[in-house]
Amino acid sequence: MIVSWTKQQQDAIDARDTSLIVSAAAGSGKTAVLTERLVQLIADSSSGVRADRIVVVTFTNDAAAELKNRLDSKLRLLINEKPDDRHLLKQQILLQSAKISTINSFCFDLIRDNIPDNGITSGFSVLDDTDNKVLKVKAMDELINYYSENEYDKISFMYDRFCIKDEKRLIDVIERADSFLASVPFRDKWLKRAADMYSSDFKDSAYYAGLFDSVINDLEEAQQIADDNIGMISRIFPDMSDEKAVKSYAQAEEDYDKISSLLAIFQSRRFNDNAEAEQYSTFSDLVRVGKAVHDKALREIYKKKRDIIKKKAVKAMESMISVESDYRESGEVTVILAEMLKKFEEFVWEKKCEKNALSFDDGERIALELLADEDSSGNIIQSEIARKISEYYDIIMIDEYQDSNNKQDIIFKLISKNYKTNQAGEALYGDNVFLVGDAKQSIYRFRLANPKNFINTLHNSVPYMKDSKNKNQAITLNMNFRSSPQIIDFVNYVFSQIMSEKCGDIDYTADEMLYFGAQQFTAGNQDDRVTEIAFINEDPDEKEEEQETTAVINHEAVYTASRIAELLSEGAPVTDKNGEVRPCRPSDFCILVRKNAYINIYADELNRVGIPAKGNEETGYLKSREIAVLIDLLRIISNPLQDIPMAAVMTSPMYMFSISDVAIIKSLDNKKPLFPIIRGFADGEYPEYTDMFLRERCMDFLDSLDRFRLDSVTMTIGELIGEIYDTTDFISVMQLYNDGDQKRANLRALIQYAQNFENSAAFDGSGGLNGFLRHIDRVIENGDYAQGKVSSAAGDYVSVQTFHRSKGLEYPFVFIAETSTKFRSESNTVVCSADGRIGYILYDPVLYRKYKTFQHIMLTSEEEADTRSEEMRLLYVGLTRARQKLFINLKCGEKALKRVNSIIESIILHNGNVNEAVNGAKSFSDWLWTSIINHPDFKNIAERIGLDVTNISFSGDVSVQKQFTAAYAKNVCMEEAVEESVEESEPDDALIDRMNDIISFHYDRTLSETPAKLSVTQITKKLKEKDEFFDFRLKRPRFKSKDTGKLTGAERGTAIHTFFQYCDFERAISDVSGEIEEVVKKGYISRAEADSVDKENVSAFFKGELYARIKEAISYTREKKFMVAVSDLEIEDESLEKLKHSDGMIKGIIDLMFEEKDGIVIVDYKSDRGITLNQLKERYSMQLKLYKAAVELTTGKKVKEALLYSFELKKYIMIVI
């Protein structure tokens, strides 16, 4: 297929002999451009680029794998066209050795190839973030003990400056400073600079200059406002000769002179004295105007502006109080802190050497040490290793460059060809790099990403020209091939008003705007794609903590779910990328929220109204139900005398004892732990209790526990966990839950976490099951592991996720919800900056008070500005996820409207300039309201939601009339409440009788003895046995026996079913043995199970008539799970009547179903031996009838056939349904 590239894309692909930075906006096809450029360079024999001499750095392993696959596929296509091209054949072989990886993988490979003599060997393991944190906690304990024993004066000094009750605040300071240092290229140099900045006299320090610059900037703003106020007097008073007008004008001039004089003091870089402080902090009372003719609204604005002037004047003088003592105290603290941080790093490194393990931060730090040297002036230059690497590699490509941190940026520069520095000694890129990214989408500051690396490189490059000799050029890709023109217009409208260099780190000019390129959206109803803003009569949730966001009814979630339900019921049209139009389905919708706490609220509400929805929880791994059960099982394997873990495991889905069962067992002997009681009960020591069914279950439980305890001695922890999965089928049980895929991924991930622990513990002797459990306890105290990764292959459900998780994804319909969620604002005890400045919240042990130093106030202000900029970029990412239509929710309850009024007031006070409102925003909604306020429709919206804007005049651009439409949730547009007379109600006799009936009702216990859920297999088995009583009490199946080494018939049947569930049909056709091995490798079946799969039977299936039909079908689904109410099934059977009149549920898993033009065909695999097709038909007819009824109920489609396929007979038979 021939791709039509834009001119900018073609330039990015074709540019040669220059380094290129590509600013690629959302949806601009950057990955396609990067791939095409690489392919053309590799395929062109005259380019001089060898496929094994390219470095391509991505920021995720998945992205690296995808890029490598794309390159390989494109090369294969070229080779198919030119099969005799030896250059292409050679490049394809060399491509397998190309460095296409994450930056971490690149650094670790570099270290292994050039291992330094620092205590780590080339076989080092890699610590994940959680394990690294646990290791640092141990090192912190050693640090505190070391200073308490050997440097008591120093730690005592630090205690006095930070601690109130214990050492927690001091530990917090050290940990936060250490965390910050992870982003610093040269840790020791930063610590030296931080201490040196306090070595000079205060007036000669950078802190002194920064303090005055900040105050001067504030006073210049106050001076501008004072000047505006002078001009306002003539607008307030129509008659300037009036006495009140004259006095007011004189007062405005006096205010201006006062602020100007105060500004002059600080511009001369000196402190004000007491007399000046008294003079300039006192302002005369506002002139009383009495009955003089004047504009009241304008005078109110004048008054508020004057208040701003006074506040800024007072703030300027208060900011100078105690600054010299702050400087002195902070200097003493910084010297000792720098020393403690170095000692802390020594303890941490010692522990890493013991484990022969490195963290991701270590990888970057050591790689930088290998690549960087210093010249005599202290400038960073290439080491010999860096020079060799830069000469070896032909091309260096960095994807998502905006997400690089400061260390990574210097690493990239040092390995570039012809590396150079500018006049200030700062590192610059050489001439063989290709950088792709978008500063507007840099949202990983919490991972230490610094978008200024991208912005600075962009500014140091010139616009691309084909014949230019400049070796650093830039290209902008701003044609958006993802979104409808209505979304693009709305995004441009919003960010052209709010995004700037001051807030967002980049000016949203014409170069940064999006331009329409998705031609599939040129047809159809354009109005259906206009952004919809819903105004919801609800106030923001003011609880700040994630776990506290638990409103009883979230009206916004209710509204959002109802709106999605409405669109689904209407069959709202969706335009796919190929231009085809179809009705929408749940997977077309995505809801974005700012906090994890809202994910389940929205997912639960959608599920409540019958819309399938899933939330991507990002936290809570070790507390998740499935992992908590496994950890508790490991605890009782290690020590079975622990009652709480024992009871938790017994009542879990793994063993399914009831609470009553455990209570009965415990009541046999209240003085003993559970374990010996269970053992005694199983051995017959309690003859007074005769429940043989419970005794048998206890025996099964003890058998499995004893086997696991024995296995724990001979197996590694990872092997033990795997054995637990294999013998209990716990993974399959957990997979039946709504979030079964996530639970399965979590359980698989536990094996990897255990293996990681064993790899590092092997070096320091802290391994074994007990060591792992102690390690887990430390992890729980200090953090958590990441959730297991689930394939995005998905199903048909609404996705609810955070803005961060949505990066790189796209959906036809995107709802931006909970926009009033406040930005995080933490007042950390220590704040650091990249240039070596550091500020503290110190404690005064004499006055018993904490206080913020002026350095802390300055740096916190900068930190908040950076955080706000990232939040703006996060909003940009969220809005650009939509392909067809955006839906935005805005709360407009009483408190929310007060916030809107404050935004309006800010804009008025600054003469229509929105910068102050933008820079003071506390949530996404503040920015969205700022944009709406300037819209021509705002007055209509204000009227509908109850905002009084009668005296406000905004000049909105009429050309933006169609940027969005307004929707109003129920009760939003409420007229003023009218009191209604309340009449005393008469008793409702019918209701009273009904309540009495309910109270006196006696249950028919027959149904209470019937299980709430039964599988189809259980029902058909009971029907087949023709039990008169129809007893549904089910025994727990025995575990797979290890004594004989052979599989039972049921286990062999499970093995072949599992193989057909997970195998790749296409690969299995040509290589059955190879595909069986692949399924074993992925962990779906064991070796014993694989050996039991008859390859001849498998091959016969794929060669048969049935598979030919499956292959030609419209679609097919394997392992289709369902759970339905028996009463909803349209099936007549006397034996089911008892269940049909209950609330009982039937669950089942259909082996395979496929759809043909005239209906659905159900296939059920059978592995029964020594049985004819007619016997199978007689045995399983009811099962297939139940399947048919369930499929027709859940899909709404007709089931035309039901087939039983016998692997033993290699044939199938049709069941009459």
UniProtKB/TrEMBL annotation:
One example of a Gene Ontology biological process annotation: recombinational repair
EC class name: isomerase
UniProt keyword list: ATP-binding, DNA damage, DNA repair, DNA-binding, Exonuclease, Helicase, Hydrolase, Isomerase, Nuclease, Nucleotide-binding
SUPFAM superfamilies: P-loop containing nucleoside triphosphate hydrolases, Restriction endonuclease-like
Domain UvrD-like helicase ATP-binding: 3-484
Catalytic activity: Couples ATP hydrolysis with the unwinding of duplex DNA by translocating in the 3'-5' direction; ATP + H2O = ADP + phosphate + H(+)
All copies of domain UvrD-like helicase C-terminal, residue ranges: 512-808
Chain sites annotated for binding ATP: A24, A25, A26, G27, S28, G29, K30, T31
EC number: 5.6.2.4
Annotated GO CC locations: cytosol; DNA helicase complex
Matches recorded under Pfam families: PDDEXK_1, UvrD-helicase, UvrD_C
Name of the protein in question: DNA 3'-5' helicase
Organism of derivation: Ruminococcus flavefaciens 007c
Phylogenetic lineage: Bacteria, Bacillati, Bacillota, Clostridia, Eubacteriales
